[in-house]
Amino acid sequence: MGTHRCNTEIEEFRSRPVIASRVDRHKDVRRHHVTMDYAFLVTIFIPLWQLARDKPAGTTKFLNKYAAFTLLVIDEWLLDEPDESTRSMLLELLERRYDQASTVFCTQYAKRDWHQRLGSGVHADAIMDRIVHNTIWVETGGHNMREHTAGQVKA
To answer: What is the pLDDT of residue 31?
Structure first.
């Protein structure tokens, strides 16, 4: 799988869904057959995982589906601390994606807090091991989009 540079225009103070939408529609992304999905961990991804667990071969289908995307954007990363089943799923999914595909984690938490929020156990060690290697960290600064837009509305 070759690597391709995708120059996308990301304007200051844009919301994350808009950024993901712009990446998905970009000509280079379509031309190079990049597949992507944008999922909110707490409100979409975990509930889908819970539904998949109740179906025959559901977990395998779920993992295969999300492992296959060239780019997977996971928002609300560690908003809630994951339970044991979710940690197992994240470990398996990140193992399948490791060195094969790109994953973007959108979160309000500093990376130094991730291990603790993942439960600080063996699963947390393994998940973090798959995240920190071959990673490019993008710090977006201390801007809070909600505070910024609230200030504009009041003005």
So the answer is: 60
Q: Which two structure tokens, joined as six digits, stand for 80?
A: 């809630």
Contacts of 92 (CB under 8 A, 6+ apart): 63
What is the rounded CA–CA span in Å between residue 115 and residue 124?
A: 6
Answer for the pair 73, 39: CB distance below 8 angstroms, yes or no.
yes
Could you tell me where the beta strands, DSSP code E, fall in the chain?
36-40, 71-75, 102-105
Other residues' Cβ atoms within 10 Å of the Cβ of residue 43: 11
Provide the token pair at 141: 């600064």
Residue 48 vs residues 70, 151, 154: alpha-carbon distances, Å: 20, 36, 38
pTM of the model: 0.72
